C-alpha cells in the first residue's frame, strides 16, 4: 500500500512539473469567431480556443484547466458579456481581458423581430483593456442578442478592437498586425456587398429558417424579413404544432423551393418538413462553432461567409 501511494505521489509530481514546463498560449479566445479573427491578424502568436470544435457555445462554463490558461495567457479575448456571462465573475490576476464586441450596438432579443431596437454597450459598460472584475455589473443576459458577429459591419469593429489589443501587448509587431487587419477589413467589405446583392436580387420576401435563429444582425443590416422555427435564444428542441403549421403554411403559400437550416443541426423535424412539403434545405451558418473535421481542415470565418452568400443566391431564387 505504501509503495502504491509513493508511486502515485511521484506521478503527481511529474505531471505538475510537465504542466509548469508547458508554455502558456499567448492568446486565449472563447469562440471560433474570436479565435479565427485573432489568428488572421496575428499568425505568429500561439492562440488557444476554449470552446472546442463541435461544442455548444451557449451555456459553456470554463474548466479549472481553462481558468489556469486564462491566468497565464498574455491576452484573454472573449466574444461579449451576453454570450459569455461567466467572464464577469472571473477571478484572475490577468488584467488584459478584452471584450471583442465593445463599441457594438446590440439588438434586443425580445422575439418581436423589431429591427429598430438597439443597445449601445458603451451606455452601460466601461470596457477598458484593463477589465475590473470587482465592479458590479447589471447585465440581463437574456435581453440583448449576443450574435453580433453575423453582421459584417460588427465584425469590422471586432477586428479593430482585437488589433488594438494585440498591438498594445506586442508593439514590435504593429506593422504586421495592422497590415493583416486592413486586409481583413477589405474582405469584410466585400462580404458585406456580397450579402447585400444576394438579398437585393431575391425573388422571395421571406427567408424561412428551420432551426434556432442566430442571424438577427444579418437580417437587420439588409432589412430582410424571416420566419424561424425557433427564436435565437430558445432552448426548444421540438416545435409546437402551431409553430410547425405556420412554417409549413408559409412554405406552401410562398411556393418555396428552398429553406435554410442551422449549422451542426440534428433537428429530426427538418426531415419531416422536407418530406411533407418537398422543400430542399441549404445551410445558413451563424457560426456558433465549427465541427472538428472543419477545424482540422482549416476552415475560416471568411470561408463560411462566402458559402452563406452562395447558398443565399440559390435559396432566395424561385
Structure write-up:
The protein is α/β, with parallel strands linked by helices. It has 2 domains: 24-193, 3-Layer(aba) Sandwich (Rossmann fold), CATH 3.40.50; 201-315, 3-Layer(aba) Sandwich (Rossmann fold), CATH 3.40.50. Helix content is 42%, strand content 13%. The chain has 10 helices and 10 strands. It has helices spanning 2-21, 32-41, 64-72, 152-169, 174-200, 216-222, 241-253, 269-277, 292-296, 301-315, and strands spanning 27-29, 47-49, 75-78, 97-99, 105-107, 118-120, 206-212, 225-230, 258-261, 280-283. The strands form 3 sheets. Strands 2-1-3-4 form a 4-stranded parallel beta sheet, covered by helices on one side. Strands 8-7-9-10 form a 4-stranded parallel beta sheet, with helices on both faces. A two-stranded antiparallel ribbon has the order 5-6. Strand 9 (258-261), helix 8 (269-277) and strand 10 (280-283) form a beta-alpha-beta unit. Helix 2 packs across helix 4, helix 4 (152-169) runs antiparallel to helix 5 (174-200) and helix 5 (174-200) packs parallel to helix 10. The protein is globular and about 60 Å long. Mean pLDDT is 84; it is low at 1-15, 111-117 and 121-141.
Short account of what is shown:
The protein is an alpha/beta fold.
Order of helices and strands: HEHEHEEEEHHEHEHEHEHH
Which strand order spans the largest sheet, edge to edge or round the barrel?
Answer: 2-1-3-4
Percentage of residues in DSSP E strands:
5-15%
What spatial form do the alpha-carbon principal axes imply?
globular
Portion in helices: 40-55%
Gap from first CA to last CA: 75 Å
Main pleated sheet: 4 strands, parallel
Name the CATH superfamily classification of the largest domain. Answer: Nitrogenase molybdenum iron protein domain
- What integer is the average pLDDT? 84
Query: Which structural class should the secondary elements be placed in?
Result: alpha/beta
* Low-pLDDT runs: 1-15, 111-117, 121-141
State the CATH architecture of the largest domain: 3-Layer(aba) Sandwich
Radius of gyration: 22 Å
Instruction: Give the beta-strand count.
Output: 10
CATH fold assignment of the largest domain: Rossmann fold
CATH class of the largest domain: Alpha Beta
Number of domains: 2
Total number of helices: 10
